[in-house]
Amino acid sequence: MTAVRQITVSVNGQTFERAVDPRLALVDFLRDQLGLTGTHIGCEQGVCGACTVLVDGTSVLSCLMLAVQADGSEVSTVEGLASGLELHPLQEAFWEKQGLQCGFCTPGMLMRAKEILDHDPDPTSETVREAIAGNLCRCTGYQFIVESILDAAERIRVGSNA
Amino acid sequence: MKSAPFEYHAAATLAEALSLKHDLGGDARVLAGGQSLIPLMHFRLATPAALVDINPVAELDYVRRANGHVVIGARTRQATMLQSEMAASAAPLLVEAVGWVGHAQIRHRGTVAGSVAHADPSAEIPTAVLALGGEMVCRSVAGERVVPAAEFFEGPFTTAVADDEILTEVRVAVWPEGTGAAWMELSRIYHGFPVVGVGALVHLSDGVVDRASVALCGMAATPVLAPAVADVLAGNEPNARVIAEAAEAAVSDLEPPGDIHGSTTYRKKVGRVYVRRALAAAVENAGGFR
Q1: What is the ipTM of this complex?
Q2: pTM, whole model, 2 decimals?
Q3: Phi, psi (rounded to 5 degrees) for B13
Q4: Comparing C-alpha atoms, which of B112, B126, B121, B113 is closest to residue B183?
Q5: pLDDT 10s digits, A113-126
Q6: A64 contact residues in B (CB cutoff 8 A)
């Protein structure tokens, strides 16, 4: 058995100190050790994007990053999107535009969408399609997801101008 | 958790990473972006006894121009490469190829040098490095060796990096003004691994080709150069007929291994068509297509 290592990670603004096996993937750390099961595990080989989270503001596949590598980082997961009972504009838009069906890809899709809109508040539909190419959805055919992200972008722009 | 157990070493500096690799040798794998190594470990296709994590080694995070080359440190992310305006103008073929690697989340972690060290025979980056006339800096505690790309890729997932060495830098030659570059690939799914990929460079002087280089992936156990292309093109105006002849010559000696995604015949046919298209695009980018 390999030596357990002590790590300190901030997740959605809350600091956690835990001892982890070096082979523990970040996604398993979030789900099994912190109980944050919002981040989903799909393929565990970097193909599906379901486990996408933000590490220091950048989207990564949490199945392909070790928990020990997140030591000292700030991680954002889908649990951190809403403010209490108030949904994030992306969540509202996905709900109203039916940007999900089974919901399995949704946490990864939302976190990638958040990163897209953080960098580009007014993306085109083409930009969004290209940007979510790494997040597989087997239900929607992507059309409603793209519409949801564009709708959320507009909500955020209107909100920030208000 | 699916990897076999391993000792984890986070190297803070290059010196520390080299010292770890010196002590641990072939039992240790270097962990850079982890976008290929970690899945292999999940599948237990790779079961290294130890990992030397170079992610904390900030001194290896650079892309700059030096001595007629674009030089890229081993910790430089693919996403960083895509943001470099210098690289986009000095080594457009490499930047274009990097843009085809995986998708955004992969490129956020994945490194340029990591892809070269992984040496997947289908991967874009090793192929572009080969086409450009690259060289790899392999370092150990004893010093460094510079290995030309043509000697670096020894087989599928096998390179010239020795057990006590780390690939610390990838260098690609800056081609002169008047060069056009193009990357083309066929993949089963958008931004998946290419079935066949082609990197092409053409330099024109007074409307005549005086220098050209083509490398292909998916056509052999390693990325391969197609030296016959330059033989056909050199001294000629790059018209459609000459380009078609060069494309034919590029693949005529190749015997790509067939698999579920494409037989030998299919890969050769696609290879020929993609070399033709890539050359035409490169000529157009060089400003000489008619």
Answers
A1: 0.95
A2: 0.95
A3: -135, 165
A4: B126
A5: 999 999 999 999 99
A6: 34-35, 38-39, 109
